[in-house]
Amino acid sequence: MRDTNQNTKPNDALLTVSDVAWLDQVSEKTVRRAIAYGLLDALRVGPKGRLIRIHPEAHARYRRGQTY
């Protein structure tokens, strides 16, 4: 998981865990597991870093790496 110090453009819309789960048609728990296993890069934001956000490019890389 990366720090919030990553250079992102202000107009980039970060995705939530729920957004990624909906896009991939999986549970939020599956998305959280992918983050925990290092398969999906995520950012921690907000007070004490409790919120998780995923950059759309990181999600695209994750999707390209999946095989069904």
Task: Give a description of the structure.
This protein is an alpha+beta fold and 68 residues long. It has one domain. It is built from three helices and three strands, in the order E-H-H-E-E-H. The chain has a three-stranded antiparallel beta sheet with strand order 1-3-2. A hairpin with a 5-residue loop joins strand 2 (43-45) and strand 3. The model has no long low-confidence stretch (mean pLDDT 87). This is DNA-binding protein. Keywords: DNA-binding.
Quote the average pLDDT. 87
Q: How many domains, as an integer?
A: 1
Instruction: Write down the overall geometry.
Output: globular
Helix content: 25-40%
- Strand order in the sheet with the most strands: 1-3-2
Protein name: DNA-binding protein
GO molecular function: DNA binding
Keywords: DNA-binding
Organism: Litorisediminicola beolgyonensis
Topology:
Blueprint: E1 15-16, H1 17-24, H2 28-36, E2 43-45, E3 51-54, H3 56-65
Antiparallel strand pairs: 1-3, 2-3
Features:
single chain; 68 residues; alpha+beta; 3-stranded antiparallel beta sheet; DNA-binding; DNA-binding protein
Summarize the structure.
This is DNA-binding protein. By secondary structure, the protein is α+β, with helices and mostly antiparallel strands.
